[in-house]
Amino acid sequence: MVATSRATRQYLYSKDKELLLQRMRKIEGQARGIHRMIEDDRYCPEIIQQLTALSHAADEVSLLLLQDHIQGCVAEAIRGEHGEPMIRELMGVIRRAARR
Amino acid sequence: MVATSRATRQYLYSKDKELLLQRMRKIEGQARGIHRMIEDDRYCPEIIQQLTALSHAADEVSLLLLQDHIQGCVAEAIRGEHGEPMIRELMGVIRRAARR
Amino acid sequence: MVATSRATRQYLYSKDKELLLQRMRKIEGQARGIHRMIEDDRYCPEIIQQLTALSHAADEVSLLLLQDHIQGCVAEAIRGEHGEPMIRELMGVIRRAARR
Amino acid sequence: MVATSRATRQYLYSKDKELLLQRMRKIEGQARGIHRMIEDDRYCPEIIQQLTALSHAADEVSLLLLQDHIQGCVAEAIRGEHGEPMIRELMGVIRRAARR
Questions:
Q1: What is the ipTM of this complex?
Q2: Half-sphere exposure of D24 (CA within 13 A, CB side)
Q3: Residues of chain B above pLDDT 70, percent
Q4: Alpha helices in D4-82 (DSSP H)
Q5: Chain A residues near residue C99 by CB distance under 8 angstroms
Q6: Smallest Cβ distance to C55: which of D13, D55, D66?
């Protein structure tokens, strides 16, 4: 893990923060809805479709955070001429998110 | 959508139903935890890692439901010699879940 | 691995066989084209876009073969009342293809 | 598309170039091998496994190129204080590669 100045992150974050929190509340609601579908013995393909939507929604939040991260911490590290460890960490994040 | 006998589904379902409900409650908890991480301005790569875990957990529930569906509705349709529309629907489910 | 009658597979296969062979020749050509792009020092995002297209094309062939497999071997096994090992194998194939 | 100095790219590229070319030749060989498996009516799950391996290999080349791109063009743009359009383009590349 690379040390980063919290202040910088907070600044970038804040512009999207309410949007990100909203999306997480929506995902929580989707999980609750799918729980109910399983309780009600709903048709499997319908439930799988909702799980796919939930999974996409989570990936979308990841992409927004990734963009914030690159515009914030990674760009700052590159400008400070210590970008290499940050880029290595970034590649790890992308690789795990891409499930490779 | 293909009509299926609810009774068959319910039978297959029930053996895994409590497990599936548990997993959905866990995913709901993960969503709440990530909401809190964003509120607390946690480091982006840490949040992305948790989102990746949530997304994997949802995909895992999809795979369990897909197996139930194939062992139940799809197998029943094939034995009843009307498997073709069911297999076409199944391929649509797999294709969407695979994001292609 | 589950033993299957080659005859059945061949029958199902044959309707799509020329299409599948064509697609594999196209993928081979895409690989050659990307090799050339790298030799020519083309812009990374352009090369990545072509690699993404190649990867999608391979996944598309997988989905066609998966459908053939379910309509052929899996359906035959289910009708013969020995579907369970075949469905377990099928889930393994789907799981690996989905990279989970 | 963002204009970039070809010289910088070439420099970064060259360290991995032979590796990348080797991998593309291997992928071309994999495509040829799968073509032969289809001709020979091999068992679908075996062919799908090889297609999955080919698809992974292509994604691996994408990740190597993505790293080169971030260390080269993106870092250079950020240091030159015109990182924003480059980061937007980068997010598009990641998004398409992640199939979202």
A1: 0.86
A2: 25
A3: 84
A4: 6-39, 44-69, 75-79
A5: 99-100
A6: D55
